[in-house]
Amino acid sequence: MRRYARAGLGIAAGMIAYPGAWLGWFRPRDELAAAVGDLLLVGFHGSTSASPSARLLARQVRRGQVGAVFFVSENIGTTEDVVGLLRLFRAGTARPLLAIDHEGGVVQRLTKAHGFTRVPAARKVAAKMSPSGACSLYAQAGRDLATFGFNVNLGPVLDVDDPTNPAIGFHGRAYGKDPRLIASYAQAFVEGFGSAGVMCAAKHFPGHGRAVNDSHDEAADISATWTEAELEPFTQLLSSCHAPAMVMTGHLRLSQLSPDGRPATISAPIVTGLLRGRLGYQGVVVTDDLDMGALSRSMGRREAFVQAIAAGSDLLMIKNLFGYDPLLPQRAVGWVRSAIARGELKEERVMEAAERVRALREKMF
């Protein structure tokens, strides 16, 4: 109830600016503004197509202000409600990325009540199925998603299993402890969903499995528990024939690589140095939600957004739920322009990120 109360307060405050956002003339008028729109992966309030927040976001998608939308549990109503929302976001010619968490287990927003195949948690899949059997299961789940209109699944989890971890292990979201086993089931996940036209985002780089706290609440410091073995599932998956279209970074502090204390989502040594440089990954890097307590407790959206781009991220996830801002796309353009003017960000980095996301969208459609 507390969560829904916070969401209610968030949209109540945001609705003050809603008329200006709806009636405003703003749409991308130059190359940089259009590029910023491509970097935005945004959430919304409500679970039906009548939601003012959803209707405004759909309009922003059509205008090119936002390139990607993601659904959380608060957005899931009846089957008809979900279909109506997807139809709303797909209207027009913009071709947005439409993402959802569909790992299985407790992280499956769409269930049997919506006509979806039940997908067990990763730990149970690895215990009861072969990788080929898992691939068949994930292919069916992918067809379920694609039939509705989703084209991005925010999974698989490549974290090493530790049952004491409150965010991953406690819920059975990891396949196991052996990097080769993790990679083999992650490949089955990517191949299965990919066969249905659903692209995947492997997470949570560089490894959330042994963190002792939950990054939904605070940045998880993995410095004392992280080992090179946690890179192995990513290394093997990224070098396989089923490399994911995206890799999601986590709000994870790793002092060995980022001594300034910045979490991976906003750390250039981790995103550009480790993931891009050492592992050679050339796909889209997507952040975990920048509104999560791990960042929002220590910095505002503007700072997190700019630092994530500067670090090397391409797609910036902002739930926009608890601190709802209907003018978020316009503000993001302003943040980027001022950061470039101040020397905090290079325009080439913004354009590079946008080109990478556009290439992914072209490949998808």
Task: Compose a concise summary of this entry.
By secondary structure, the chain is an alpha/beta fold.
Give your account of this protein's structure.
The structure is a single chain. The chain is of the alpha/beta class. Helix content is 44%, strand content 11%. It has helices at residues 2-14, 18-23, 31-39, 52-62, 79-90, 122-128, 131-148, 179-195, 232-238, 268-278, 293-296, 301-311, 328-342, 347-364, and strands spanning 40-42, 68-71, 97-100, 102-104, 107-108, 152-153, 199-205, 220-221, 246-249, 252-253, 284-287, 316-318. The strands form three sheets. Strands 11-9-7-6-3-2-1-12 form an eight-stranded parallel β-sheet. Strand 4 and strand 5 form a beta hairpin. Helix 3 packs across helix 14 (347-364). The longest helix has 18 residues, at 131-148. It is globular. It starts with a helix and ends with a helix. 51% of the residues are buried.
Quickly list its features:
365 residues; alpha/beta; eight-stranded parallel β-sheet; two-stranded antiparallel sheet; 12 strands
Give, in order, the helices and strands: HHHEHEHEEEHHEHEEHEEHEHHEHH
Number of DSSP-assigned strands: 12
Q: Main sheet: which strands, in order across?
A: 11-9-7-6-3-2-1-12
For this entry, what is the oligomeric state of its chains? Answer: single chain
**End-to-end separation:** 39 Å
| Low-confidence sequence ranges | none
Radius of gyration, in Å, reads 19 Å
Could you say which overall geometry the principal axes of the C-alpha atoms support?
globular
Proportion of residues in helical segments: 40-55%
The total count of helices amounts to 14
Structural class: alpha/beta
Strand content: 5-15%
The biggest beta sheet is recorded as:
8 strands, parallel
Average pLDDT confidence is 93
